[in-house]
Design goal:
Shape: globular
Largest sheet: 7 strands, parallel
Number of domains: 1
CATH class: Alpha Beta
Distance between the termini: 32 Å
Oligomer: single chain
Number of helices: 10
Order of helices and strands: EHEHEHEHEHEHEEHHHEH
CATH superfamily: NAD(P)-binding Rossmann-like Domain
Strand order of the largest sheet: 4-3-2-5-6-7-9
Helix content: 40-55%
Strand content: 5-15%
């Protein structure tokens, strides 16, 4: 499951034009709504990420798929290009559990493109057992929150150029489960006590806090920041969980949960809908409706504190400019 349910889109891996793109049949000539726009999607080799990449490609965008698994990414790239009828689809490898890999991926994007118009922070994990990243950071926090924080920072120069060329949007996939989240600053990485579900809901609340703080910091720049609730979606996000391992249970989840294509509508709407151009600091669902997030997500003190902690953990601002 992804988004609405606690659970990886990859192992770390909605309204108007957006809805029609997500619902359009495979193949055929792409729509021209996003022609000339560079859209980057993380966790794009499967699930919601792949469905988002395909929908944006159908709208005519130049799509950059960030993914860790090169083999799966190559296959996903071919499928997205074929289904959308758009060959302007490329892959950039990135391990979102590694700060150096994130920086290298951003450098590769900058070498290939003059601007980025849309960044969809989609990739996520949901782990039953505590693990740490290559940087020694608890893995759920590293991939679900710190990776979007760092990647967005590294791509800001390109996003600012995109803003000067018709506007730029940062879309971060959170979850309805952020409503159950608490940012435990005293035990942020679960060193003293780790519960996988709590680590996941904390990271999803962090996605919303990050979005609102980013929107405030980028106000007036032409770069907007919004988050989305995709709904309860059948993806591999729960594959580390016992109730998702058995084949017959996976088949059951597939019947009762939304498809990745349905879940992707929220991201595609926020990334492309003309009516939300210039709108920032909001959360949308897959029907394009603005939703009110949890009470904790509007805590300005908490979001500013989380920003400072995120800067410290990623090294952002230690040797140069920050947002």
């Amino acid at each position: 499951m992804h988004g609405g349910g606690p659970g990886s889109e990859s192992s770390y891996d909605g309204g108007g034009a957006a809805a029609s793109a997500a619902d359009s049949p495979a193949g055929g000539a792409p729509n021209a709504a996003l022609r000339g726009r560079v859209c980057l999607v993380t966790g794009a080799n499967r699930g919601i990420g792949r469905a988002t990449a395909a929908a944006l490609a159908r709208l005519g965008a130049t799509v950059v798929m960030l993914a860790r698994d090169a083999r799966l990414a190559a296959a996903a790239r071919e499928a997205v290009a074929r289904e959308s009828g758009n060959e302007r689809v490329t892959v950039v490898p990135a391990d979102l559990a590694s700060f150096s890999s994130i920086r290298a991926a951003a450098g590769e994007v900058a070498a290939r493109f003059e601007a980025v118009h849309v960044l969809v922070n989609n990739a996520g994990v949901n782990l039953a057992r505590r693990q740490v990243s290559a940087n020694g950071v608890e893995l759920t926090l590293a991939v679900n929150h710190l990776a979007p924080f760092l990647l967005t920072h590294e791509l800001l120069p390109l996003l600012r150029r995109g803003a000067a060329d018709g506007g730029a949007r940062v879309v971060t996939v959170t979850s309805e489960f952020e409503r159950f989240g608490r940012v435990a600053f005293g035990n942020l990485q679960g060193e003293r006590r780790y519960v996988g579900l709590l680590a996941y809901t904390q990271s999803k609340l962090a996605n919303v806090l990050f979005t609102y703080e980013l929107a405030a910091r980028l106000a007036g720049t032409g770069v907007t920041a919004n988050c989305v609730y995709p709904g309860l979606v059948a993806t591999d996000l729960m594959r580390d969980r016992l109730l998702f391992r058995a084949p017959w249970l996976r088949a059951l989840w597939g019947r009762v949960l939304l498809s990745p294509e349905a879940g992707a509508k929220a991201s595609v709407y926020a990334a492309s809908a003309p009516e939300v151009r210039g709108v920032t600091g909001r959360c949308f669902d897959r029907r394009g409706r603005e939703v009110r997030t949890s009470r904790r997500s509007y805590d300005v003190v908490a979001r500013e504190r989380l920003w400072r902690v995120s800067e410290e953990l990623t090294g952002v601002g230690s040797g140069g400019a920050t947002v």
